[in-house]
Amino acid sequence: xxxxxxxxxxHCDGPCGVYDPASxxxxxxxxxxxxxxxxxxxxxxxxxxxxMAAYLNTMSRYAAIKEEEAQKCKKELxxxxxxxFKPQHLEANPDLHDVFWKxxxxxxxxxVEVSAVHAQELMDAVETIHAMFWAAxxxxxxxxxxx
Length: 147
Fold this sequence. Notes:
Four Helix Bundle (Hemerythrin (Met), subunit A), 0% strand
């Protein structure tokens, strides 16, 4: 007995069809928030051991969150780039590859730096990707920040 062959199409490893740049936006917002908190957190008198311990603890937590969220943002962007977007999307967005490549590089920069400029550039790149994504789906979804 022969089992019939069923044709199936999928755009990724698992054909869930659920994509949304919102998760990248939330992660990028967290990167920007942690960056701004780090830049605004004043260093206490270094001779005050307790204050320095509290300061270093807070800064290390901010840095850990910033790096984790930057990696999460990068992962979410790469999933959109490699699984959702197809060659036909390049016609409407000839700069698609460049936008994603630069956004991924900004995620890396935000992991290793404390730069308000790069954090804002990452947010701007994610907003551009948001617009590309929803245009590809034929929907007008407004850019709304959680913070």
